[in-house]
Protein 1
Amino acid sequence: MIRFLLLIFLFSLSNQVYANNKGEIINNLKNTSNLTFDFEQNINGKIELGNCTIQYPKKMFCEYDKKNKVMVSNGKSLIIKSKSSYYRYALDKTPLNFILDKNFLLKKISESNEEIINNSLIKFTIKENSQQLDIFFDIKNYELIGWQTKDIYQNTTVTLLYSIKLNQIIDEKIFKAPLQN
């Protein structure tokens, strides 16, 4: 009987820890209007580096270190521009639409179960419209530190964030769609 009560106590304690993690992540995300960060992006083994700014709702500007490449979301379209190419996608047809929609993330995180990875990451798996998004938070400060998606070509994309700064003053002009070449 004592073992049974101990197991119930330990189980309820672990549920409280998970609930606390989820609550801290939700509070942190609610208080985040924007974030700037450096990133490492791995698309099927091809590594790209750069820096980004996300401003909620649904705006993003990223500069890649090589190839003179930028990626911009103005809230409706996602544009990827390099010296030799220009692609425009409807944002709502891409997995980034979910990452850039704070209200969607808050709702899905509150409904999802978390997974602790190596006692350093908290992972939530979100499935929506036949797409899957794995989103990662730091277990120490509850900040968004990465995500994993499949792009429209079914390439697995893992994006890791570092040197993260929250709620910076941002020039809105960076979210203006770049002109085509």
Protein 2
Amino acid sequence: MEIKDAISKAKNNNQIAFNFLLDTYWNDVYAFQLKRTENENDAEDITIQTFSKAFDKIHTYNEDYKFKTWLITISKNIHIDLVRKQQRSFRNTSKDNEDSYLDIIDDSPSPEDKIITEQNLAKLLRDIKKLKPHYQEVINLRYFQELSYKEISEELKEPINNVKVKLLRAKKLLAEIIQKK
């Protein structure tokens, strides 16, 4: 899939296009934030927020600019906002307007979903334990407790888009662990 094609499909809520864009640019955004924050957890959180915001606002993306530049700019702004909040020592959870949530279609199983469901449960649980705790948690809430995105969002006190991006990333990492065997 080509980037422009993926962006166009993502603007129409195509799940595969979102996965493609996440896979293509995750390392760039994460590396950028790792240099800025010098902290793996912060870099990962900001990267998740970056994709969450980007997928929510993808319809505003101007194709005159490179997609990677757009993502890095969003990421940089999220980090600046975080630093400002920390300097004020005022912590406030993000309040997203529910109408602006991105509706990522989650009916059709992705290739990662197929790989995951082909594994037997014992092996799968061992593989899940290899993920970072926050990825284990979203996998557990979604696939074992069968909570909706909205319920997971409320449980974790995080915006729905962050939950969706975390799940995309968790499924991708889990599929990679399974395939290495």
Protein 3
Amino acid sequence: MGNSMESVEIPFVKHVGIQQTDEILSLEYDSHLLNHLDTLHAGALFTLAETASGIYLQSLFPEYKDKALPLLRSSNIQYKKPTTKNVFAYASVERESQEKFEQQLLKKNRGVIIICIDLKDADEVMVMSGEFHWYVELRKI
């Protein structure tokens, strides 16, 4: 599905300023990312969460590097609290969702998986949580 470091090089993601340290993606509180309340803009937070979900998906299935086309199909997010701090993304997937996805890939060469993301600020306050539904199709090589 691609190298995770390459994913952070996506032009828009780079423009927003998302950074990766080890497996954690983060977004610095910066004046160019603020909304009318001087808190981090919802769009910047969404970009961090969506990017983290894609990179996490890639890390789950490294064997499909360059063999799969992942596309975000939908998301369901909840903004919890505004923040004036740096924000960090934490990803997870339910075992059942991962197992079903793997079965779909083996049987149909495509599948859907739900990646869960929690965004927390530097004080560990939950800023946003969401589910990102990824459609993945294996390329015919």
